[in-house]
Amino acid sequence: MHSIDIAVIAVYLVGCTLLGARIGGGSGAKGLRGYFLGESNIPAWAVMISIVATETSAVTFLSVPGIAYRGDMTFLQLALGYLLARVFVAVVLLPPYFKNEILSAYEILQVRFGGATQKAASILFLITRTLGSGLRLFLAAKVLEVITGWDLRLSIVVIGASTLLYTFLGGIKAVVWTDVLQFFIYLIAASVALVILLKTIPGGWSTVWQQGQAAGKFRVISLGTEGLAAPTDFAGWWGLVQTMLSRPYTIFAGLIGGFMLDTGTHGADQMMVQRYLSARSQRQAAWALIGSGVLIFVQFALFLLIGIGLWVLYQGRPFGKDGEFATFIKDYLPTGLLGLVIAAIFSVTMSTLSGAISASASTTVNDLYRPLFPATDERRLVRLSKVSTVFWGVVQVVVALGAMKQTQSVVDNALAIASFVMGILLGLFLLGMLTKVGERAAFVGMIVAIAVVSSLAFLTTVAYPWWALVGSGTVLLVSLVVSPLVDRPKAGPPVLEEIR
Questions:
Q1: Residues 278/42, Cβ–Cβ less than 8 Å
Q2: Is 238 exposed, middle or buried (0-12, 13-18, 19+ CB in 10 A)?
Q3: Which pLDDT band holds residue 357 (cuts at 50, 70, 90)?
Q4: Widest Cα–Cα separation across the chain
Q5: What pTM, to 2 d.p., does this model score?
Q6: Coil, strand or helix: which one is 323?
Q7: Closest by CA position to 362, among listed 100, 103, 38
């Protein structure tokens, strides 16, 4: 790499650390609400951008163009489901979060079901979030190795240590405001890459439009029945249903599966709930959440357009897994801009990692430690929060280093596990808010759902957008069925009934 590119990357890393330390400095002195929620004084627009930056990883940055390269724009159907889900979360789940003045999403489960269910849900979150974030760190470092030739271990340690430093120093304020910076960096980098791509293709946008239209690359809506023969008997209909369920980018998977998946990831994931609680009011948090759905749709459209442009440039040439955009970056971007795009890959990775570290520390202290030691003073809790921040940051790096010894399929499966767990947690939240089911039935429902979704993921070809629906549905159904058999005579009222 040219020294100018290295300088751009170095400036970015140092700038993020200084920004986080400067803005978030002193957060810990203002107690847990200062360290984990920024005193609930962060503007809605910054919360909105932070939500989008947190859910955008290096894998997204590079793999979404690959989806359009190998297919079309039907991936946007998931984004439609995501937008509907965020409206639902804003209307149904945000009120109890703000009403109960919580620090962690799982405190709602403590209020409704008791300690055992809360702790089980918290541990489930910690395991899957750390696993998923550590593996994203590994995949980002792997991309940097391909583009730059840097040592894989060095990339993992540099990204992990830089992220941990500003998260430790500044808490959630540092996380949110560096997310804002990182969002603009990776969005500018992607836009510049698209401009260069269009200039590289003879005829520019008109050529992309004509060839993409002819090949059906701009298709957005799919029923999932394309290329399938009309069924004539029961076996044919069953085969049709199985095939449709195995296709992740259909209108049904997007609006139903995508809705349930995003409701779980944005309604029952502490990494996202922490963002909402840092906003100045419930109303501002709701607008930030819904606005993020619109923004993520636009962002996905940009990445997919890059993929179509790459398909025109390379004329459909086969690449390795998600290698299309990485190859273009390596071969076509000039000095300086290459450094900017690599900084963008750093940024999307660091925004995901910092959110996961802060959320994991918050869950550890508020859901696992404080219920056991309720008399602990605030100053000690803040110190424990910082120790927990360091611990989870180091664990993510260890997971990433350990992933170097695994096969790619194992990595993909682990990331999928992290996604379907959110459906199970969502089922618990809906159970507590909408029914009178007690703790024992809820716990049984959670255990059965884990077994059912695990079987679905590893023993069938059902596409991942459906896993959250099955997970949350299993929790609700099993808990309601077994409640008369295992619950005590008097169960607690639904959370939504309490706040009316």
A1: yes
A2: exposed
A3: very high
A4: 74
A5: 0.86
A6: coil
A7: 103
